[in-house]
Description:
The chain is of the alpha/beta class. It is 30% helix and 25% strand.
Amino acid sequence: MKKAVLASGNAHKVHEIGIILRDFDITLETMKDAGFEGDIEENGTTFEENSLIKAEAVMRAIGAEVTLADDSGLEVDALNGAPGVYSARYAGEGCNYEDNNDKLLEALTDVPYEKRTATFVTVITYLTASGEKIVARGEVKGHIGFERKGGNGFGYDPLFIVDDMDKTYAEMNDEEKSSLSHRAEALKILKLELAKR
Length: 197
C-alpha cells in the first residue's frame, strides 16, 4: 500500500481526502506526522501555484512517494476576484475569520444582491516522486449575503449562499456541505483522474 503525505495538519482534510485515496490503495497522513517541520511560504498568485508550492515543498523535505496539497479561497466578482489567494489573510496578518467576514461585508456595502456573485474554489495537486502530477480544480457558485447566517462551518461559510440550495454553507448540515463543497468537487475530479492511471 502506498503512503501519501498531505501538506496540511488539518484532520478534516485528511479524513475527507483519505476516503477517496483508499479506493486506490493509498493511505494518507499529515505532513507533521510524516516529520515535516516549519512553514511553507505560499507566494503564488493562483490557487494552482500555491497548491503546487506546498506539494513540492513537502516532497523535497521528506522524500515522500506521493504528496498532496490543496489551496482554497473565495473569489467575489464585484471585487475583481478578491480576496482570492489571500482569503485566509484578507483582513491582514494575524486576522481571524470574523475579521475577514467583517472586511468582506464592508467591501460590499451598497452592492445589490444580484451583483454579489462569488465562487468558492479548491485546487488539489497530487504529485509522485516519479514526476506524475494531477491538478484538480473544484468550484461552487453562489452569492455573498448581507449578514452572517448559520452556526456550522468556518471561514466565509456564514456569508456564502450556495445558489443551488439558497442557504449558506453555515446553515447546512455536514452531509449537505460535504456533498456540495468546492473541495468535494475537486476530489471528484481527482478520483476520476486517478482511476485513469
